[in-house]
Amino acid sequence: MPFEPLASDFYGFETLLNGQEQDALMRIRDYMEGTVRPVINDYWERAEFPHELIGSFLETDVARFPFAETRPFENSAVFRGLVSMEMARVDASMATFVGVQEGLAMGSISVCGSQEQRDTWLPKMASGEVIGAFGLTEPLSGSDSARGLRTTATRDGDSWVLNGSKRWIGNATFSDITIIWAKDSADDQVKGFLVETSSPGYTATKIDRKIALRPVQNADIVLDNVVVPERMRLANARSFRDTAKVLRLTRAAVAWSSVGVAVGAYEAAVAYAKEREQFGRKIAEHQLVQDLLAKCLGNITASMAMCVRVSQMLDEGTQRDEHSALAKGFCTSRMRETVAWAREAMGGNGIVLDYEAARFFADAEALYSYEGTREMNSLIVGRAITGKAAFV
């Protein structure tokens, strides 16, 4: 199909992609528009995940571009970012599913696993044969995960025994494996483990009554003397610094997804403004509505520009933690502002799912908080600015 840049890509960043990447982006756009958009409001309202779409969804190759620091990327980081944006502009929940599967779970194996672990698990996960989850956050440990993890791993011969709990773990009610991060009771260092969810002592319970990302099946996980063979310990995860390598890469992807959420709300508002009549004419002709839409587009364009540059730096090998942290904190803040303006432009209809802005408005709250709150990302950037850590 011919390449058609989005009207909301006001400065034409999508034209930076090569022809092969443009074709792949259009395949994903066609799938999201034709298959996901018609059904996702219903799943969102019921808080159910569209499991039957996983196979066809992964056939678009969205999970075939795994993060890695041990080998060159197969596609540009700008392309992978635009894929995240493209998914999120239709539905942030499906973008989150891929972010967990391809970014956090596969990314942990790519960055921290041995070659054998990569060869064993990544092909199965890319095809959807194996679904993954990522267990870092705990009931009493979120922003302070670097120091505050309470889940423990104790060496016992050729195995490890894991005890503790995790919270807000996406995909966890139906994952086949979960990457569990735990403190080694011997050296107090954080290590990663590939835990099969069928293991005795492992339980996952869905978190209900959410107002955001309702199709995402977040879970509370309990680990009660879960035995994990040494071969399932991530070979190159020796401390939280290794965990942070994964988070640095996925944090930029969340920034891209937040742009997608802003775009989705903005596009819904533009379409509505062209149809809705008040005071005898379309509200698209009203100055105050145009002002709201122009401010939305300004936020989107500035955020997209930041994401493009951060992705280029990743390809160049110059991206650091503070670069992805600034992008995540800034873009999610501008997203939150943009979805509110888009909803405002639609008046009372802006809170009804049928007009879509309401879903983006609610989902924005989850993206604003996960993968590092705005405050924590500000402190990462502040440390880079001043040379002083101010985390406590």
TrEMBL record:
Belongs to the acyl-CoA dehydrogenase family. It comes from Mycetocola miduiensis. Keywords: FAD, Flavoprotein, Oxidoreductase. The keyword Oxidoreductase applies. PROSITE patterns: ACYL_COA_DH_2 (PS00073). It comes from the Bacteria. Residues 243-385 form the Acyl-CoA dehydrogenase/oxidase C-terminal domain. Its cofactor is FAD. Pfam families: Acyl-CoA_dh_1 (PF00441), Acyl-CoA_dh_M (PF02770), Acyl-CoA_dh_N (PF02771). The lineage of its organism: Bacteria, Bacillati, Actinomycetota, Actinomycetes, Micrococcales. One of its GO terms (molecular function) is flavin adenine dinucleotide binding. Residues 133-226 form the Acyl-CoA oxidase/dehydrogenase middle domain. InterPro entries: ACX4-like (IPR045008), Acyl-CoA_DH_CS (IPR006089), Acyl-CoA_Oxase/DH_mid-dom (IPR006091), Acyl-CoA_Oxase/DH_mid-dom_sf (IPR046373), AcylCo_DH-like_C (IPR036250), AcylCo_DH/oxidase_C (IPR009075), AcylCoA_DH/ox_N (IPR013786), AcylCoA_DH/ox_N_sf (IPR037069). Residues 25-129 form the Acyl-CoA dehydrogenase/oxidase N-terminal domain. GO terms for biological process: fatty acid beta-oxidation. This is Glutaryl-CoA dehydrogenase.
